[in-house]
Amino acid sequence: MDFSIRAANVDDCKDIARMIMELAEYEKVSDHVKVTQKGASCSSSDSRLSPGTSDADLEQDGFSKNPFFHGIIAEVPEQHKTKEGHTKIGYALYFYAYSSWSGRAIYMEDLYVMPEFRGKGVGKALMSKVAQLGLAAGCHQLNFAVLDWNKPSMDFYLSQGCFDITDTMGYHCLRCEGEALKHLAQL
Amino acid sequence: MDFSIRAANVDDCKDIARMIMELAEYEKVSDHVKVTQKGASCSSSDSRLSPGTSDADLEQDGFSKNPFFHGIIAEVPEQHKTKEGHTKIGYALYFYAYSSWSGRAIYMEDLYVMPEFRGKGVGKALMSKVAQLGLAAGCHQLNFAVLDWNKPSMDFYLSQGCFDITDTMGYHCLRCEGEALKHLAQL
Fold it and tell me: Which family, according to the similarity comment (chains A, B) (predicted)?
């Protein structure tokens, strides 16, 4: 299938927000998603220096100075657009991370391909691009998370040589948010 | 106990490397650790534009332009130094991350206090500082990983209002590295 992979820009935020919601529906967590294409209170060009909105504001968080993430887009030619008119049919978000054991790492936050375009190599091409970007930046690891019921994705990742460090090394992911996070900060 | 928390600087890398190794010994993974205070081939001031070394090079990776991580240090006054002469007795490393569901996040890569200074609030003060830094940058989540056998740490985190998203939501951490990562990048 004819498709291309390119770096995301601010004009892609509407489609990224649409696909984040589609992915969340697939992951059965759409009620958890607070992403918006654009927040109302963007005032600083440096996202680390602005308070942010209460939700995920893709334009401010990904396309200001010191962005919190980067993105890549999979796109098909106009003649292969969906019946809704979409040509942006997949995406991956990533950011740079660090392991004190092994150094530079890249974290893939999302990998998504619209259902009607699956099985054609788009997902693998997106993931391969993230791996390329990581290696180019001197990263030794590509890390990401998978929900345990999502066996098709898990099988795909294991077939690519990835391994489950929760199963093999006992890694558990912990989170602090909301009132607990505010309380923790008030030492 | 009298101690202070401050941002780490490049002069702390020797002590951070020492404590990373101490933490790895506690976590029983010291044979996995490839951290060095300083690599041999540092040529660019922007860490994202330099190839990096094969190992974790704290000075280059954390204290160049576009660092891969940030750090904070817990320090005691000279009169409380250890018998080996150390006044830097704890640290945390962190970096900014992103959740496409809920937006800006901060990831705590390491939290360590030297054994003889535990139980005096140093660990909680370090973690609180990371929470403060995250909230100041508009983050909604503090994320980190714990090894499942490390019950003292797990109990501490749960007592602080953190929750285990591996247990409650089925999050599994996956990793691609080494030859598998190179192969993935060669699509």
Answer: Belongs to the acetyltransferase family.
